[in-house]
């Protein structure tokens, strides 16, 4: 790199010197370029002479200050900005500039996804469209006119309400949109295309009618009904749960195929990765349906938590993201099974966030500095951020939490605020001091709690010690404050007491008396705090039977399996007590989705996280041995569960049908560990006859791991059926690159040449290369070829789309926990990538942290 990229610090935050009272934008879209005319009304807020606007990769055509054309001496341009000298107290600036959307492969700013013009402005994409004060604390009223060829782009959209249509003589037309709600530039959006659409209507609680439209590629209209249903449910839920209603006449959603993330909450015009809109049972799995419901709701909920009240600066990102994730998780829990939702949320947190929090890229949910803000759309900011909101919800209780949210909305509506402002509202309405609690915003790493017990003279004492971690830079951190739900269960299985403790000191103990025998502890019920419990001893088999909390019952099952696997990794034989307990689970008559979770063995990644020095090979072999043993011992029962729940003719997506598919596919996967022809044939039959994508995907996965010729036949069939459907092809690539078979790297390399694959489409990169980099067996192969392949892809993709490339860099973040041999191989590749000429600041930032 020529010059090391510079970090930006929260401590350097300064208020803006100018306000933009209104902005009027005109976009003239052409195939080869776009002309943007930007008229802004400024107001000076403090005593400065110069206005400095953000501007990146823009071709400036004209600048007018209060209608007078400026000569080149009156302003200066550099790589990041446009500065205008000697400006008055209030003035109008008109800027005309040219951009090239069809060459924009970064997918930030205005770009083309296939034939559709679309935008992505969060966090700093707007400055790649036109010069602006591109920071979230500058909020303005936008009026936007989009002009384009009428035949090619009949649909022209922007934020707010439709204001006016314009007909031109030359085959071009235009539409003007007006958004009355002041907003920061990151919420700006524009779409132009020849799109199909599905429409509906929603009447808000105060009787306003809102037009709902989902725009998709023509031919996909029939795949929008689940998204539309989810949107209406979300709108109703936010009214009922938070008293918040929608505030424009129209709510538009547009699905595009090339998108860096899941979706974006632009005011009144959400832009979505098509993977989170389009679904029918032939092409989408049950998990996809759930994902759509949650992302549609997430973006809708942002209208209040993000758009009406936004972030003062990007360090406050968790203000809107943690809160909105908590809201979408609560919504999904209300729509589906509360117990399953909680376990799924925690699983996700541990798989992604705990790994990040143990790595050199760890950061507090409110980071202190960044080089590229794009790198901070992390699981920490989102998922740990949601856990922090959830803890406040737990501490306050439902009623006070709702009062605190009302106070937050009433106090800060229309403003750009900080996480401190949010906590203030929680403290005021909750009547609680959250000073120590606020450390959750500023400290990194997953807190650990060492749990010891004592039982004497009928008194049970719980002794807790917080293990305080240092920050990444070695600085000391302090003990945390959190709610810890616990229960004590009598030896006969009866619940003796249930309590919420407040943990706040480095060392503290809690005593409970009146016990004839030592009770069994159930700790961190509902996962009330996002911490790691270190317990010397526990009776997991007992808790699997008697714990009344669905989360800790699940936890006991996982912990028992982990204990069993870890002793196998040390050379012990399989613990038959675990096998017996697993058999007990098989017989339970409980909700089948929950049962499917109980029967799942801990993931490879869970076991990796617990190793001091990681060696994947030992984990894989213990995992395979245990699965095979369970499959052999319980074959008959598993087959019976499979048969009872296999309904090949049903593609219903109600809770019961989804649960039946979940349990059936769980036992099929477990049975496949025995690698018998019989199971392969069952999977093949499931592939051939089922009518849902959920069943087909599991069948393919099982075949891939059990029977090469049958797998080949099924995959060929799948390819031929779906090669024209990119969303389904993502599954195809994902299945093949997650395979544990020996020749995988070679196959992944070959798949890059498939006519469907394209390095420019983020979903495809994620499903082929991203999945491979998470295939621990092959990524960490001892010949270093896995690392080399991913490093080569990082270098290639970094030139096209730095945000995608830095996502791939993150897969190296367990570098410092790997064994010496793997570390050496990883280092070689990381050094090669970081010394690449012209490497983006996105990739630089991640690799630099890993290597430090
Ligand atoms: N705010 C969106 C996520 C998002 C962030 C950045 C993007 O591009 C760089 C795109 C989307 C959300 O939370 O849904
Ligand atoms: Zn969000």
Automatic annotation (TrEMBL):
Claim: Transmembrane helix is one of the keywords in the record:
no
Q: Which family does it belong to?
A: Belongs to the peptidase M1 family.
Which UniProt keywords are present, listed alphabetically? Aminopeptidase, Hydrolase, Metal-binding, Metalloprotease, Protease, Zinc
**Alphabetized GO MF terms:** alanyl aminopeptidase activity; metallopeptidase activity; zinc ion binding
Q: Lineage of the source organism?
A: Bacteria, Pseudomonadati, Campylobacterota, Epsilonproteobacteria, Campylobacterales
A biological process (GO) of this protein is: proteolysis
Domain Aminopeptidase N-like N-terminal, which positions?
29-187
Q: What's its catalytic activity?
A: Release of an N-terminal amino acid, Xaa-|-Yaa- from a peptide, amide or arylamide. Xaa is preferably Ala, but may be most amino acids including Pro (slow action). When a terminal hydrophobic residue is followed by a prolyl residue, the two may be released as an intact Xaa-Pro dipeptide
Q: Name one Pfam family in it.
A: Peptidase_M1_N
All copies of domain Peptidase M1 membrane alanine aminopeptidase, residue ranges: 227-437
Q: Report the cofactors.
A: Zn(2+)
Q: Which PANTHER family match?
A: PUROMYCIN-SENSITIVE AMINOPEPTIDASE (PTHR46322)
Domain of life according to the entry: Bacteria
Q: State its role.
A: Aminopeptidase N is involved in the degradation of intracellular peptides generated by protein breakdown during normal growth as well as in response to nutrient starvation.
Q: Which residues form the Peptidase M1 alanyl aminopeptidase C-terminal domain?
A: 538-852
Protein name per its UniProtKB record: Aminopeptidase N
Q: List its EC numbers.
A: 3.4.11.2
Q: InterPro entries of this UniProt entry? A: Aminopeptidase_N-like_N (IPR045357), Aminopeptidase_N-like_N_sf (IPR042097), PepN_Ig-like_sf (IPR038438), Peptidase_M1 (IPR001930), Peptidase_M1_dom (IPR014782), Peptidase_M1_pepN (IPR012779), Peptidase_M1_pepN_C (IPR024601), Peptidase_M1_pepN_C_sf (IPR037144)
Question: Taking every annotated instance into account, which residue ranges of this chain make up the domain Peptidase M1 alanyl aminopeptidase Ig-like fold?
Answer: 445-535
């Amino acid at each position: 790199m020529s010059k090391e990229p510079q970090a930006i610090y929260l401590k350097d935050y300064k208020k803006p010197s100018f306000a933009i009272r209104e902005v009027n934008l005109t976009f003239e879209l052409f195939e080869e370029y776009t002309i943007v005319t930007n008229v802004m009304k400024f107001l000076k807020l403090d005593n400065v002479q110069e206005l400095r606007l953000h501007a990146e990769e823009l071709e400036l055509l004209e600048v007018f200050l209060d209608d007078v054309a400026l000569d080149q001496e009156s302003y200066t341009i550099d790589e990041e900005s446009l500065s205008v000298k000697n400006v008055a107290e209030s003035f109008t600036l008109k800027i005309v500039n040219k951009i090239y959307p069809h060459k924009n492969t970064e997918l930030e700013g205005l770009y083309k996804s296939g034939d559709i013009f679309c935008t992505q402005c969060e966090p700093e994409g707007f400055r790649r469209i036109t010069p602006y004060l591109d920071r979230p604390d500058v909020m303005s009223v936008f009026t936007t006119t989009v002009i384009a060829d009428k035949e090619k782009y009949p649909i022209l959209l922007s934020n707010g309400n439709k204001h006016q249509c314009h007909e031109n003589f030359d085959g071009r037309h235009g539409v003007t949109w007006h958004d009355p709600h002041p907003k920061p530039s990151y919420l700006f959006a524009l779409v132009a295309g020849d799109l199909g659409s599905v429409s509906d209507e929603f009447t808000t609680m105060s009787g306003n009618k809102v037009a709902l439209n989902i725009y998709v590629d023509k031919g996909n209209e029939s795949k929008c009904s689940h998204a539309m249903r989810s949107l209406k449910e979300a709108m109703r839920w936010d009214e009922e749960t938070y008293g918040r209603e929608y505030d424009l006449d129209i709510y538009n959603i547009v699905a595009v195929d090339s998108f860096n993330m899941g979706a974006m909450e632009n005011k009144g015009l959400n832009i979505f990765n098509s993977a989170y809109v389009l679904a029918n049972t032939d092409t989408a799995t049950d998990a996809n349906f759930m994902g759509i419901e949650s992302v549609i709701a997430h973006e809708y909920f942002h209208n209040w938590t993000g758009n009406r009240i936004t972030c003062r600066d990007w360090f406050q990102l968790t203000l809107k993201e943690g809160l909105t994730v908590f809201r979408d998780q609560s919504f999904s829990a209300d729509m589906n099974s509360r117990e399953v939702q909680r376990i799924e949320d925690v699983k996700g947190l541990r798989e992604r966030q705990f790994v990040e929090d143990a790595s050199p890229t760890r950061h507090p949910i409110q980071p202190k500095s960044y080089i590229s803000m794009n790198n901070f759309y992390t699981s920490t900011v989102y998922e740990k951020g949601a856990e922090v909101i959830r803890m406040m919800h737990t501490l306050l209780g439902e009623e006070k939490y709702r009062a605190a949210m009302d106070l937050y909305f009433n106090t800060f509506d229309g403003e750009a605020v900080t996480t401190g402002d949010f906590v203030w509202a929680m403290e005021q309405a909750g009547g609680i001091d959250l000073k120590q609690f606020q450390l959750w915003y500023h400290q990194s790493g997953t807190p650990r709690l060492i749990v010891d017990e004592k039982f004497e003279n009928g008194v049970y004492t719980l002794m807790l010690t917080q293990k305080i971690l240092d920050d990444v830079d070695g600085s000391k951190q302090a003990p945390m404050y959190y709610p810890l739900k616990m229960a004590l269960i009598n030896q006969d299985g009866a619940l003796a007491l249930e309590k919420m403790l407040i943990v706040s000191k480095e060392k503290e103990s809690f005593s409970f008396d009146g016990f004839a025998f030592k009770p069994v502890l159930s700790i961190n019920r509902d996962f009330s705090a996002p911490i790691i419990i270190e317990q010397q001893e526990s009776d997991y088999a007992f808790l699997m039977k008697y714990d009344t909390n669905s989360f800790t019952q699940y936890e006991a099952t996982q912990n028992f399996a982990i204990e069993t696997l870890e002793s196998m990794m040390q050379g012990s034989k399989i613990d038959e007590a675990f096998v017996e307990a697993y058999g007990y689970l098989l017989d339970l008559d409980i909700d089948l989705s929950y049962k499917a979770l109980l029967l799942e063995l801990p993931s490879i990644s869970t076991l990796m996280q617990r190793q001091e020095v990681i060696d994947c090979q030992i984990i894989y072999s213990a995992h395979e041995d245990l699965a095979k043993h369970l499959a052999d011992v319980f074959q008959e029962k598993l087959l019976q569960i499979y048969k009872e729940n296999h309904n090949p003719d049903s593609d219903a997506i109600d809770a019961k049908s989804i649960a039946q598919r979940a349990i059936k596919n769980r036992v099929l996967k477990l049975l496949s560990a025995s690698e018998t022809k019989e199971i392969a044939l069952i999977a093949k039959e499931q592939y051939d006859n089922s009518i849902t994508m959920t069943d087909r995907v599991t069948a393919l996965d099982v075949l891939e791991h059990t029977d090469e010729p049958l797998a080949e036949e099924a995959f060929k069939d799948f390819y031929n059926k779906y090669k024209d459907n990119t969303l389904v092809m993502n599954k195809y690539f994902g299945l093949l690159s997650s395979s544990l078979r020996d020749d995988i790297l070679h196959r992944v390399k070959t798949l890059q040449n498939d006519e469907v694959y394209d390095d420019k489409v983020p979903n495809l990169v994620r499903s082929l290369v991203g999945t491979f980099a998470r295939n621990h067996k092959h990524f960490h192969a001892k010949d270093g070829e896995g690392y080399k392949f991913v490093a080569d892809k990082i270098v290639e993709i970094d030139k096209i789309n730095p945000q995608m490339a830095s996502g791939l860099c993150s897969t190296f973040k367990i570098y410092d926990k790997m064994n010496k041999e793997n570390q050496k191989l990883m280092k070689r590749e990381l050094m090669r990538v970081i010394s690449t000429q012209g490497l983006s600041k996105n990739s630089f930032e991640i690799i630099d942290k890993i290597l430090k």
